[in-house]
Amino acid sequence: MSDFPRWKYALVAIVLVLGIVYALPNAFLPVPAVQITANRNGTVDQALEQKVSDALKQQNIATTGVEIKGDHLLASFVNADVQRAGADVIKAALGDDFTVAFNLKSTVPGWLTAIGAKPMPLGLDLQGGVHFLMQVDQNDVIDKQETRYADDIRSLLREKNIRYESVTRNAVRGQGVSIVLKSAEDRTAATNAIAAEYPDLTLQDGLATGDRFVLNAVVRPDKLRELSLNTIRQNLGTLRNRINALGVSEPIIQQQGDSRIVVELAGVQDTAEAKKLIGATATLEYRAGYGTPQQAIDAVRSGIIPPDARLYKNREGQPYLLSKNVIVTGDQLADASSSFDQTSGTPAVSVTLNAAGAKKMLDFTTGNVGKPMGVVYVERVVDTKIVDGKEVRTPKITEEVINYATIQGVFGKNFQTTGLRSPKEASELALLLKGGSLAAPVDIIEEQVIGASLGQENIQKGFRAVMIGLALVLLAAAIYYKLFGLVADIALFFNLVILVAVMSAVGVTLTMPGVAGIVLTLGMAIDANVLICERIREELRNGSTPHAAIRAGYDKAWATILDANVTHLIAALALTTMGSGPIKGFGVTLLIGILTSMFTSVTVTHAITALIHGHRKLKTLSV
Amino acid sequence: MEIFNHNSNINFLGMRKFSVGIALLLILASIGLIVGKGLNYGLDFTGGVALVVDYQQPVVTTDVQAALDKAGIEHSLVASLGGTREVSIRFQPTAAMKDEAGKVNLDKVAAVTTAALQATRADAVVKSRNYVSSQVGDELRSDGIVAAIVVVLGIGVYLGIRFEWRFAVAAILTEFHDALITVGVFALVQREFDLTVLASVLAVIGYSINDKVVVFDRVRELFRSSRKAEPEEILNRSINNTLSRTIITALFTAITMAALYFIGGPVVHGFAITMLIGILVGTLSSIFVASPILLWLGVSKQDLMPKTKENPELARRP
């Protein structure tokens, strides 16, 4: 009698089970914890675990567990107050070799994690933290490029013995460089020379009056676009490194649009520390190598450093001796990109210097082939402290050798650093080089601090709103449509479960607008059932038998439900394109909600209805 | 249980001149309000600084405003956030809130404001702070307008394909009506119009189109199944047949939005209120506005019959 196919029952059952399983992790609330990661000199091991446990025990701070998770140690606590006290104790006990940060420890059982089920990440408005939106100064990128090309063209013309009157940047930014030459022949010669050397420039003849022949050189738009994209990527990279040093767990550092970067640090309340890192400036220094690697190791051991040299370390802590004299600095570096060495095929980084840097490099390499040269990455962070009511600014400088190689030949403007182990290492080095040179200044254009208590409050209110909204709709549907209303209620409940499951599995960050989206979805999901129930009532009134009414009700309502939902889907889709952040969260929630509700309101209710009425002779329907 | 008489046969189309006249008046009034009075744009659009301040004892917004004025923080907007102990304050940052480089420093903002407020009330605590530069707002506004246009066009194209162009035009015109009146109400009561509200205006468009499509679907079905198809009668029957569903769905959705408004806290107030206004406007326009437009556009049975492929052989025969 039932016209509902078996495979659909199976589908409904499977989806419901999967929905419950993948929604389940959200029921396990994470507990406050302190995360301990090792810096250069520390290691995370059993001894550290013991040390942390002992320190906490000594101060009578109760922990619910100290355990090693991958490369870090997690100590969990009952509540946020104990967590704060615990963090202070741990910091005092461990010193500078470890970074101590607040974190949350998941309490999701292992078997759920093993199948990839995870809770929804919470947005800043639900857990407190700081949010920055930063704008990369693209004008600065253009300024630097145009100034550099002006310098380079000047020296190129000199080198080729082409007489010119002036080479200047045009007053309007983005209008390129204007070159004034003395004759038409010179202009042709200059055009050819520049075109051969700088394919990224578009050349166009300007006015020719008397003995002034103008030639305009404009940087190609696609080159500029590439440059600004690189600037963003560089800034993202450097920010990521710096924020990792801050020890914030799971920071969000994302590109937004063409020139923006979003940084979200959950759990952080103090923007000063974060801003200090974001505002740090970096530069590069090319220095001549000094002595042999053994000498550097000896210098570390004995503490005696040769008078002309300085001792540096690389990220792994390996020591290097480099000359005190700097050959080229970061601001003289025009470009760096990862590539492959033409002869050996190994990963390499191609570096381009500006005219001034090229000359210095040429002078240096002429006399130093076969000798080593190192690149030092210098980062300067200004620390502001209030001492006796006055602001005291102390710069903190970190220096790190990022590359150390032997000079293979004489070079100036363009050269390659080869012998890198992998393409990844090459692109990292290129990013670091650029990070120390071109990086455009970033402006903070949006800043938000959300208190931790506000986050807690929002979670409670949001949860209650969802539950009460759900309860009211369930009640209304049951009263108005009786048995069919109850069936719709079961489906609506599963709609919430599956919606949460999909959002968790996809990894949608839950925010307050997202919660609003969930509540709206619950209200609108019932629409499909209203359509079906009204249709069934209509069919019954027109004299259909109960079974025929159910069949016709579902059949006829389906076309309407599809049209209505597709149009609604178009609206939700447009919402997801609006910016990032909260509105997107709302749009994504709505989008997923429409899709899940189509399944639960139609297929799930049909399955339940078929189960209830399928094999019975019916005289009436409770609808 | 049934609230509506299933045999209802109200002549909605009969009052079309009246109902559409009112709709036009409301649209004109909304445009007048939006242009004349303007919208009270929120921080997302205007840029500036916004703070949430908590008091231990109840506080009146005018007192907060007075305290700020006294401290030289002018043109501040103070609103209570559901309750008497929490207020939101919005203003353009003063010189004392900027650092040496002329950039807004939120720590200074919080310090200056706290000092200003605590001068009169010692129990004021800044709970959260937020800064948005005005340039972000300009982009958001244009993004929002683009999104709204994409929604309207996308829906129009879909309806054009699934139904017929007259349905698409009727739907789009009614969407404009719904969106404009919803925004118009915001201009009238000068409620803060922020990013969340803009998003919910788009959600209103989504809800309302859902409503229209259900009626249109019935129109198509009745045109196809009736032998004698007087457009006015068909449209009237369609509205009446779907009336129960239109109102029940509106009620159910409104229930959830009311729950959100009363329980969800200040963050979602704007959202819930916009949806409630939109549900009301959208429901009324589904019943009174969309179908008259369809009638005036000259919808007929022929346009809706499934297209039968013309046989060139038959056409050539005499």
UniProtKB/TrEMBL annotation, chain A:
Main subcellular location: membrane
Domain SecD export protein N-terminal TM: 1-101
Pfam assignment, any one: SecDF_P1_head
Protein's UniProt keywords contain Cell membrane: yes
Transmembrane feature ranges: 463-483, 490-510, 516-536, 557-578, 590-612
Bilayer topology annotation: Multi-pass membrane protein
Protein export membrane protein SecD/SecF C-terminal domain location: 442-612
Domain of life the protein comes from: Bacteria
Subcellular location: Cell membrane
Residues in SecDF P1 head subdomain domain copies: 312-440
HAMAP family: SecD_B (MF_01463_B)
PANTHER family in UniProt: PROTEIN TRANSLOCASE SUBUNIT SECD, PROTEIN-EXPORT MEMBRANE PROTEIN SEC
NCBIfam families with a match to the protein in the record: 2A0604s01, secD
Primary role: Part of the Sec protein translocase complex. Interacts with the SecYEG preprotein conducting channel. SecDF uses the proton motive force (PMF) to complete protein translocation after the ATP-dependent function of SecA.
Record-stated family: Belongs to the SecD/SecF family. SecD subfamily.
The protein's name in its UniProt record: Protein translocase subunit SecD
Gene designation per UniProt: secD
Automatic annotation (TrEMBL), chain B:
Subcellular location: Cell membrane
Keywords, alphabetical: Cell membrane, Membrane, Protein transport, Translocation, Transmembrane, Transmembrane helix, Transport
Top-level taxon in the UniProt lineage: Bacteria
Short name of any one Pfam family annotated for the protein: Sec_GG
Domain (Protein export membrane protein SecD/SecF C-terminal) ranges: 114-298
Membrane topology, record value: Multi-pass membrane protein
Transmembrane segment boundaries: 20-39, 144-161, 246-264, 270-299
Assembly, per entry: Forms a complex with SecD. Part of the essential Sec protein translocation apparatus which comprises SecA, SecYEG and auxiliary proteins SecDF-YajC and YidC.
Protein family (similarity comment): Belongs to the SecD/SecF family. SecF subfamily.
UniProt-listed NCBIfam families: 2A0604s01, transloc_SecF
Function text: Part of the Sec protein translocase complex. Interacts with the SecYEG preprotein conducting channel. SecDF uses the proton motive force (PMF) to complete protein translocation after the ATP-dependent function of SecA.
Protein name stated in the entry: Protein-export membrane protein SecF
Upper taxonomic lineage: Bacteria, Pseudomonadati, Pseudomonadota, Gammaproteobacteria, Lysobacterales
